[in-house]
Amino acid sequence: MSKIHIPTPLRQYVGKQASVEVPGSTVGEAMNALVAQHPELRKHLYTEDGKLRAFVNLYVNDEDIRYLLKEATALEEGDNISIVPSIAGGAGRAIGRAAGNALSCHPERERGI
After folding, report:
1. pLDDT tens-digit profile of 49-94?
2. Which of 12, 53, 97, 108 has a C-alpha 20 to 30 A away from that of 21?
3. pLDDT single digits (tens) 13-32
4. Closest CA to 57 of 70, 39, 43, 42
5. Which domains does the chain have, with CATH numbers?
6. Cα–Cα distance list, 12 to 4, 49, 66 (Å)
7. What is the C-alpha separation between 38 and 113, in angstroms, rounded?
8. What is the C-alpha to C-alpha distance for residues 75 and 83, in angstroms, rounded to an integer?
9. Using CA atoms, how far apart are residues 32 and 103, in angstroms rounded to an integer?
């Protein structure tokens, strides 16, 4: 069995658990077991055609496997898999205001145009 660590935003789909133990000899088998146990996760982790979403990064024992064949990566008993979603920006405007600058991707809104 391997343990898959679930990021906080996805825990609502796994009964609020921080991690889930799953069987599997590869990352693909373990991830399939995860979504079989918790079907609501599928739409958050996989595209319509069954590929892992681009913003979902996987680590095995703290090693980034993004550039490996994720699904085929072999697992050993007791390995830890971490799901790490990519997170992007959003604080630029607030930081700019705090610093006295108006950082905005819509400057016309700042001038009331």
Report:
1. 988 898 899 999 989 887 665 667 889 999 999 999 887 766 555 4
2. 53
3. 999 999 999 999 999 999 99
4. 70
5. 2-85 (3.10.20.30)
6. 15, 24, 25
7. 49
8. 15
9. 43
